[in-house]
């Protein structure tokens, strides 16, 4: 059910929903940009629009400078319960 409407009969790929995994389900060999862009690529969104939308989201999260970073290790929780981004990613050169 979503927005008061049953959605179980709609195939998952047509539900227009996204998930944020709490277990940090990221591809370690991909950049932050590529991990965020993946669902848009699956939907065959134009490359220019993907670039614009992903960068806008990363900027909104304060992660704009991490677009070319790759995941280097398991996230280390900070005292707030959120991962410490500085220890989580490294910039690909």
UniProtKB/TrEMBL annotation:
One of its GO terms (cellular component) is ATP-binding cassette (ABC) transporter complex, substrate-binding subunit-containing. Its EC number is 3.6.3.31. It is an enzyme of class 3 (hydrolase). GO terms for molecular function: ATP binding; ATP hydrolysis activity. Keywords: ATP-binding, Cell membrane, Hydrolase, Membrane, Nucleotide-binding, Translocase. InterPro entries: ABC_transpr_MalK/UgpC-like, P-loop_NTPase. This is ABC transporter ATP-binding protein.
